[in-house]
Amino acid sequence: MVFAALIFSINQYWTPADLPRLAWTSLLAFLCFCLLSSGQYLINDVLDAARDREHPLERDRPIAAGRVPQHTALVFAIVLMGAGMVGSFMLATAFGWIAAIYLAMMLTYSISLKHLVIIDVFVIAAGFVVRAAAGAVAIDVPVSPLLYLCTLLGALFLALTKRRQELVLLDERAADHRSNLEHYSPALVDQMINVVTPSTVIAYSVYSFTAEGLPRNHAMMLTIPFVLYGIFRYLFLSHASGQGGAPEEVLFTDRPLAASIVAWVAVSAAVLVVFRDT
User: What global pTM score does this model have?
Assistant: First the structure.
């Protein structure tokens, strides 16, 4: 998500001569958010260690399984988050403040917001939107509000499918793992997914042919089939093989899904470059 601003500003805000500088800046921004999110995940795993031990998959996490002592994880978390914040403010002051907002939001999520029904998935989605905004601030380019909306809806889709998988996998023990799961049900989450899925497709489709800075010949619409396939493939994996609980694993282990993402990035970049002035 940090690199989204770099990719989608090809057509309007930079020339090939700018690429090394902007790519390097985006890479540094990406590394800063890796440090921040890694530290935050360590805090989250320390807080959730007892509950994770009751989960058939998450009990194998290093902290829950006892392979990494909690005090060691906390020390590393502080170091990682500190380095991430220092690097963020060194990169740009505005970027640093956005990074600080992201870190505060996600730490608050780990401590309390993840226990609030519906709010939990919105905070997760907001984290992705902040990442995209930070990437735009880092290289000082504007990003279409529609792209932020697509990011929000896409992240909601992933968060809801994760909640659904937790409910199906844990069944009656779901509330023991996460207290707010007692307020969810597979039917309720399916209804939410049924709202978010078409909204995501419509928002992206509208973005592809109306957003400022995209080719005026609407060639960006060529990327819509890849988005549709990616969403349908993820739903298939979630329902047919119960893989919706770990989006980061699915994205790297399912070849058809990974291929559709790579194709989407490649076609998007090609459209923005080939039809740069169209």
Answer: 0.81
